[in-house]
Each structure stands twice: as C-alpha cells, then as structure tokens.
Amino acid sequence: MTEKDLLKFKISTGLKNLIGKELITDELIAIFELVKNSYDAHATNVKLYFKNTKSNNSKIIIVDNGKGMDIEDIQDKWLFVAYSAKKDGSEDEKEKEDYREKLKSLRGFAGAKGVGRFSCDRLGNNLNLITIKDKNNAVIENITVKWEEFEKNNKDEFAEIGVKHKVLENTEYDISHGTILEITGLRDEWKREKLIKLKNSLEKLINPNQQTEDFSIELIVEDEVNDDKKAPQYNKVNGFIKNSIFEVLKIKTTKINVLIENKTITTTLEDRGKLIYKTIEKNPYIIEDISFELFYLNQAAKNNFTKLMGIRPKSYGSIFMYKNGFRIYPFGEAGEDPLKLDMRKNQGHSRFLGTRELIGRIEITDFLDNFIETTSRDGGLIKNKSYEDLIECFYDKGLKKLEKYVVSIIRWGEPYLNLDDNERNAALNPEDVKSEIIETIKKISLSKDIISVEYDPNFIEIIEERQQNSVSRVISNLTVRALESTNDPELHKDLGRIEKKFNELLIERNEYEKESEQSKEQLQQLSEDLNKTESQNLFLKSVASTNVKEIVSLQHHIDHGTVKIGNSLNGLREAIKNDASKQTLMKFVEKISLENEKISTIARFVTKANFNTTSKTITRDIVQFVNEYIENVYLHYEDLNINNTLLSIAIDNSKDITFSYKFKPLEVIIIVDNLLSNSYKAGAKNVQIVWENDTADTLKLIYTDDGKGIESRIVDKIFNFGFTTTDGSGLGLFHVKQLLENMHGRISVSTNKAQGAEFILEVHNGAGV
User: Fold this and answer.
1) 532-558 pLDDT per residue, tens
2) How many CB atoms lie within 10 A of CB 285?
3) CA distances (Å), 595 to each of 20, 626, 657, in order?
4) Nearest to 21 by CA among 91, 112, 119
C-alpha cells in the first residue's frame, strides 16, 4: 500500500456537542470539572462568581490563581481536543525536570480526560478566557469562543472553526497569574435553591480528609447577600466551601477504617470513641493506596446529624468515593446506590446495613490510572480488575466486619429512654459487650493471614472489675490457644493476666453460680415488667416474629372490619332493591371503602406497632407518630420495595415541635398513606413534610411533592367522592378530608405552586377524638 492509499478521518463540528453539553449533562458536574481543572493547575484559591442571577444577562465567572497558560499552552493543550497533558505525564515537564521530585511535589491530578474545558459549553453559549502564565514577563492572553459557531453545519470541519485570540494590556481581575473563565448566555437559571444545592454539592466535592489550606473554593453571589443574612448557616449561599461532615460523626458513632497498602491491610474498629480492635493482615489484592471509612448511624446518630447539618442523612448521601482528593459521581449521591447496598439489604433487613444506616467514604490515591473515571463524569469508574478488587475488599474487609459488630455484638445499638433522668443513652456500649468482643478477637486472630491484633487494654480491667462485683463469667470461655497466633508482646502479657485471674475465679465459682441463678430470676422478672411497659418509640424498627397477642389483635380488627363491610353490603343490597337515591347508595359505598382501607392498613403495619393495637385511640405526640411511621414502617413496606415505588421523603422538624394529641392510629396512617400514594401516582420523586405550629394549640403539616401538580380548574373537585385524574378509585383524598374533619381538623390545597402539589393539614389541641 502506498502513502496515497492511506485515508484520514475528517472531524465534524458535531464532535463539540458529543464531548460537551451532550456528554456532561449536569450543570453542577460541569462546575465541578472546571474547579478540578483549577486544582490541577496548582491553584490555591478558586472564586465562583454568579452575576445578575435575577436577570436575563446572568453570567458565571470562575477565577483561579493557578499557573495559567501562555500562547503555546493554549495552542498545544487547551485547543488540542481530547488531549490531556496530565494523562501522558507532560503537564508540568517544563516546570519539573526530575520525575521523582515531580511525583513528590504534585498533589495528583483530579482530571485527565481532556474534555473538562467543554464544561464551559454545557454552562453557556459564550466563553471569554483570560489567562496569565506564572513566569517572568508573562502577557495577558485572551481567547473568546462562541460555541454556536460549531453548531451551524455538521458538515463543517471542527478544525476549520476559528477561535479569536488577542493579547490584553490589562485586566480588571486582581491576579498576577492564573485563569479567568467568563461564561455568558447561560443555559440554566441559577435561583437560590440551585445555588444552595451547588454549595452543598461542592462541600462534598473535595475529600474532607484531604482538604487543606492549600486549596479553597469560595462562592460569591451578590444577589443572595440579603437573603443570606436571614438564613441559618447551613442554608447560606455565599462563603468558603468546607466539608466537615466526617468530623461531626467521629465521636458519636460506630466506625471502621480500612487502610490498604502495598503488602498489608490495616483495619481499625471504633465505637463511640473507644478502640474495639485493630488488625494488620496480608493484602491479597492487586490494589493499594486506598482507604475506607464507614460510619454506622443509629437513630441517635441520625438525629445528631440532622441537628448539626440541617439535613437528614438519607438526603445527604451514603458512601462517597474520592480519587486523588476529588469526588467520583454518582457515589454518595442521595438516591443513588452504585455499591448495591440496598439491593443486598433487601435480602436480609435484620442482617445487613443499607444506605439509610451507612455514611462514609472510599479514598483512592492513583497516579497511574488503575482506576479510570468514565468520560460522562457521572457514571462512576470503569469496571476493570482494580475496580472489582476494590468492591470485594470494601465488602469483605470493611462492611461485613462493621455489620458483624453492629448486628451481632451491640445489636444495632439503638437508644432507649432512661426514665430516671429523661435522657437517651446508648442501649449497648462497648463495655457492655466485652465478652462478645473478646470472642470476636479470638476468631479474627486465628486467621492465617493475620499479622497482629491490638485492642483496648481496658477490656481486661473492666472484665475483672465486673467479675468481682457481678455474675459475669466470660473468662471461662476465653482460651490462651485462640490468641496465640499473634506475636504481639502486649497481648501475651494480657493473656497471662487473664489466666491468673481465671484460676482465682475458679475458687469462687460456686458462689457465682448461686448469684447467677438469682440474677436469672431477677432478669426474668425484669423482662416481664418491661413487656408491660410501653416503649417511648411508637413503632418498632423491625419485627423478628409475631406473637400470639398480636395475631389475636390482628384477627379481632379484621373480623370487626369484615362484619361492618358485611352489614354495609346488606344495607346496599336492600337500598338497591328499594330504588334508593344515589346519595344513599354512595354512603354505603363510602363505609365499605373506608373499612376495606382500614383492614389493608392493619395488615401492613400492625405487627410493627409498639402500642396496644386493640385500643381505638391513643394520646401521643402525633409529630413523632407520623415521623416514626414513615421512617420505620412505610419505607419498609414489602410491596413498595419489590415494585421500586419508594419516594424520597424528607421530614423537617427543625423547630423540634412536639404535639400531644388524642387520635386513632389507623386513621392517621390512612391519611399519610393516601397522600404518599397520590404523590407517587402523580409522578413525584420527592416529598417534603414540614411541621409548624403558629400557636401552642395548633399544629400544621405542610406536605409538598414534585409531581405533575394539580390544575387550577380541578382544585375544587379533588376532595369529592370518586373524583380522580388517574386510574385510582378517587377515594383517597375524599377519605383524607373525611377523617381529618372527624378529628376536628381540616385540609386545604395551595394554588400557588409552580410545580408539584402542596397540601396544608391542620389539627387543634383539645379537639381530637
């Protein structure tokens, strides 16, 4: 084949869209890419300006103090489509001659795809780039790009479209070196809600474990300054971006840290600030320079999280992944589950942790591109051998060990109410389960891959003290042989103390056995007393079994309901024979429908109710009742999980409202279920519930969703019997209104919603049934 027989590709201008706004579809990710470019340019500060956000001539300006570019960089790198000097290792070759010194001094690159510059296209029609190289006698380079020039004719060749260039004498920006991106003709509106979402997302962009004073991000939006003055700290737009979430969690929760090095894996398990154990074992994987930090959130930790962060954990996200300090999407994104945690949890609710109980991070340091981010920037990592090892290690060395401790040892560690001082305490602290912890350490130490084991030295002292004063006999099960696989001298010293103490305890064995029998009797009596005492929690988190009393209660309610349905059917039959009016017939249908709904509700939630289900009414905190029902019952319904119809429900009780009220549990649950069902049928993905009380005697529930909304022409009809715009029965909102009126409450619908639906439910204290 001769030279002239070789053919060459021509590149259409349509390539710009493929690697620009059609590839980076999310405007927030487009911002992230540009911030990452500033980081890779050795900037120590990035300022994000949003100008004129409330007008049609809005603009985004990104200013960094990085190394900047000269005309050679612009021509050979910035204008070289899909080329990445970071990826081929030549990005800083002029600045750093020695390779080893370069690796030592660089922070690592956040991006290496060569497409980040096209994020500007995703954000706006026009780009004005101003840059000053960090070198002596540098000039101010300026190029302008009108992206629509590439969209006029796909038959034009990409390389033939010109980009204007000039040298500026000065610039209004106060930088001696760095890059300014002025983006105009914005493709999106940047209202306050989106700006807050951007700030919250930027807080998660940088790994909090690696954020330093060497790199800062500042968001500056003059149009939002006044509203910021009235907003709580976590809801302000302007200011520096800082991720403090994992500092908030450190002392309050159970956590496991896994460090994967070249030849070893170090695992450290801590519970509420106390070391449980630390192991070093051989690394069987091809991966290294990776760490996991996973936190278990019980209800107390969730409440603490919401109080400090101003957002519920499930709305914040679960397991985040960072490569070279920057986040990989969609790991950690609320509603996303790339690690398949919830799919696994559905196979064993009482054995596994899901995204609702877990928050944490995976940190990857990778300068050799063993872990490759997908080009779309929101698709995670490419599924290669390194990724497969990462996932296997995450589960086997991190998650499963955390689950073993949380589920089997501290038994979920949920809070209980101390009636003496009215405060919540952890049901099981580490010192309460020393025997189980020692047994776990025994089993771990037997593994042939274990190099060393370390644990809290106070374990042995606490065990000795309890054996001198109580009925504990755990040492009788602890053998020296089980821990001899480690060469840790401190551990052997502790074993000697255990053996000596064990021999002393043999002498007192008979006395302890007598004391044990007495304690068993006391424990049995205490158990009976606890069974008679109603827990403060209105719903149990999970149900292991259904006892006889619950079955009898369930049967009683269903029998009672079916009798009512039977009577109503007989009445309906007679009414039809006698040609009764439509109004009379509808009354029978209403009664049958409501009783049927009650039976359905009973069958779904009754075994989770932690109160006497045979009572018609209870007097409780109705705010707590609704919140716990949604969190502990509704979101665990089998049919909703199986059919993947779960909504994302955010509950805002930031004012810590409580409202003691007398009500029928079944009726309140029917109200909640019908509202949520309507939201789902309207195509909603998210629901927000906000609690308010204008006065001490009035409680309001503001219910909003992001579904298709309610047309103004039918607002007056939605509570009518049988009215529906879907394939439903048209009885849901009718029942809601009917039940609330029976409770001397009311429901109304807002007509001012631009998107979705908003209902206001209201009850008055002293007016309940």
Assistant:
1) 444 345 665 444 334 434 444 444 445
2) 17
3) 57, 21, 32
4) 119
Confidence (pLDDT) at 768? 45
Rg of the Cα trace of the chain? 32
Identity at 337, one-letter amino acid code: D
Lookup: tokens for 259: 């460090």
The sheet that has 59-64: what strands, in order across it?
Answer: 164-168, 140-146, 124-132, 178-186, 59-64, 45-51, 216-220, 239-240
Which H/E stretch holds residue 320? strand 319-323
Cα–Cα distance list, 416 to 299, 398, 404, 425 (Å): 10, 28, 22, 6
Residue with structure tokens 């009726």? 667
pLDDT confidence tier of residue 523, bands split at 50, 70 and 90: low
Cα(103)–Cα(119) distance, integer angstroms = 28
Question: What's the CA gap between 686 and 706, in Å, rounded?
Answer: 6
Tokens of 381: 């990592």
Quick check: pTM over 0.85? no
Residues 376, 378, 381: CA angle, nearest 5 degrees: 85
Could you tell me which residues come within 8 angstroms of residue 104 by beta carbon, excluding any fewer than 6 positions away? none
Question: Helix 622-632 to helix 665-681 angle, to the nearest 10 degrees?
Answer: 50
Residue 768 CA to residue 634 CA, distance in Å, equals 24
Query: Of 79-88, 205-214, 224-233, 626-635, where does the model show the most confidence?
Result: 224-233
Name residue 336's amino acid: E
Question: Residue 121 in contact with residue 16, Cβ under 8 Å?
Answer: yes
CA-to-CA distance for 710 and 718, rounded, in angstroms? 9
CA 513 to mean position of chain CA atoms: 49
Look at residue 566 and give its three-state secondary structure.
helix
Helix boundaries (H) for 146-251: 192-205, 225-230, 245-249
Contact 318, 359 (CB under 8 A): yes
What is the rounded CA–CA span in Å between residue 407 and residue 411? 5
Amino acid code (one letter) for 328: I
pLDDT band at 476 (very low <50, low <70, confident <90, very high): very low
pLDDT for res 303: 78
According to DSSP, the residues that pair with 699 across neighbouring strands are 763
Integer CA distances (angstroms), 539 to 299, 407, 613, 615, in order: 13, 19, 11, 15
